[in-house]
Specification:
CATH architecture: Up-down Bundle
Radius of gyration: 14 Å
Shape: elongated
Number of domains: 1
Helix content: over 70%
Distance between the termini: 29 Å
Number of helices: 5
Order of helices and strands: HHHHH
CATH topology: Four Helix Bundle (Hemerythrin (Met), subunit A)
């Protein structure tokens, strides 16, 4: 799993506006932990539907900050939760997803210009 940030897209859509880039990264650091708490609760309850919904919610943010492998995993979780809600791997993938997202926080924080 590649957890390197690829800020190419974010730079393109912002025309290199560092204030905007910092806002996006700061929002990620504020909002993604809340989403991961929802995901953890859903995992604990074996709530595949909520797991899929949370995965769906994270995709655009992951795309924007260039976490392509995590976005792909979120898409896999979301689609599987919709198409085969009882699939035995959904919870495993969701746990992996949460672990990877939580590993990326320090890297994202290091990219925020204060």
């Amino acid at each position: 799993m590649n957890l390197d940030l690829d800020l190419t897209y974010l730079n393109e859509i912002s025309d290199g506006d560092t204030v905007f880039i910092n806002e996006v990264l700061t929002t990620f650091l504020e909002e993604m932990p809340k989403d991961m708490e929802k995901m953890k609760s859903a995992i604990e309850c074996q709530d595949h539907s909520t797991v899929g919904k949370v995965a769906h919610k994270t995709k655009s943010t992951l795309h924007t900050i260039g976490l392509h492998d995590l976005k792909s995993l979120a898409l896999q979780i979301e689609q599987t939760a919709k198409e085969d809600p009882s699939h035995p791997e959904i919870i495993h993938w969701a746990k992996e997803f949460v672990q990877h997202v939580e590993k990326i926080y320090p890297t994202v924080k290091s990219k925020v210009n204060k």
